Amino acid sequence: MARVIAVTNQKGGVGKTTTCVNLAASLSATKRRVLLVDMDPQGNATMGSGVDKNALELSGYDVLTKRAEVADVAITVDTAGFDLMPGNGDLTAAEVELMNEIGREHRLRLALNKVRDNYDYILIDCPPSLNLLTVNALSAADSVLIPMQCEYYALEGLAALMNTVEQIQETVNPDLQIEGLLRTMYDPRNSLTLDVSAQLAEYFGDKVYRAVIPRNVRLAEAPSYGLPALKYDRASKGAVAYLALAGEMVRRHGTKKTSAPVAV
Ligand code: ADP
Ligand code: MG
After folding, report:
1. Is the ipTM of this structure higher than 0.90?
2. Looking at residue 35, what DSSP letter applies?
3. pLDDT tens digits for 69-120?
4. What is the pTM of this model?
5. Which residue CA neighbors atom 22 of ligand 1 most closely?
6. CA-CA distance, 136 to 239, in Å (whole number)?
7. Which residues form the AAA domain (predicted)?
């Protein structure tokens, strides 16, 4: 049964989407079955996976509003090997439509429950704010993976995020765990990076991944080709770093490889 991981940070531009697309591709490369869920109305994970967000027949909107099932909405991204539940601006409309519904926080969880057996990992790309779409992601998730830049304000942002996680635990999802903290756009030549890194290790211990993601131009270029770095430039430092992260995650979970997808 899939482990459901929300990739979240209320701060924008920290590498949430880059992490989702590249981790999804790297986990697929290690023969894990992966579903990537784009819950951000910006649709960056969708475009970055090579799917045109402006030409979707079905999207996360249809799932959240119960017009379609995840299995009907998910697209197999052949180039990268994972499945994608795409999203675009319609997700904002779903948020508005859900406002007056009972159980509005749990729509995504109930929908994903039906496909959990088909995957090893379900990754959810979250928008950079705490709205109903994010709450749906955090309600559906077993854990949160937090990408962050090692900069001066990072720890402040992290305190806000821990606060959010606590609130979610007290309300919609008591079982929500911290999956791990991922240092992105990492530059070991910068002494502030090393200071922040040391503080992270002090507070979060082994929740901080040993794998770090360097600043790497290939990671920034690949989305414009609709590809994960692994398919755009396999030998790039960015691609290699995300493979290392996938390896570390899989070892932590001890998940077994699964062969061909199970027919349902
Ligand atoms: P978020 O989803 O948190 O807003 P993104 O993943 O979209 O963040 O990243 C923000 C910008 O930084 C994007 O233009 C992306 O291509 C770029 N970027 C992300 N990670 C890296 C990295 N490790 N090296 C270089 N550029 C990166
Ligand atoms: Mg994003």
Report:
1. yes
2. E
3. 999 999 999 999 999 999 999 999 999 999 999 999 999 999 999 999 999 9
4. 0.96
5. 215
6. 30
7. 3-178
Q: Which domain holds residue 9?
A: 3-253
Measured at the CA of 3, the angle between CA 100 and CA 34, to 5 degrees, comes to: 95
CA atoms within 13 A on the CB side of 211: 22
* CA 114-179-208 angle, 5° bins: 160
Is 212 domain-assigned? yes
Q: How many domains are contained in the chain?
A: 1
pLDDT digits (tens, 9 = 90+) for 5-26: 999 999 999 999 999 999 999 9
Pocket test for ligand 1, best of 17, 18, 216 (most atoms within 8 A of CB): 18
Instruction: Note whether residue 187 is domain-resident.
Output: yes
Q: φ and ψ at 3, to 5 degrees?
A: -90, 130
Cross-sheet strand order for the sheet of 75-77: 75-77, 82-85, 34-38, 121-125, 3-7, 143-149, 177-184
CA 11 to chain centre: 14
Question: For residue 80, which of 20, 119, 28, 4 has the smallest C-alpha distance?
Answer: 28
CATH number at residue 52: 3.40.50.300
Q: Is the residue at 144 inside a domain?
A: yes
Calculate the dihedral angle through the C-alpha atoms of 62, 67, 69, 74, rounding to the nearest 10 degrees.
Answer: -30
- Say whether 105 sits in a helix, a strand or coil: helix
Distance 263 CA to ligand 2 centre (A): 32
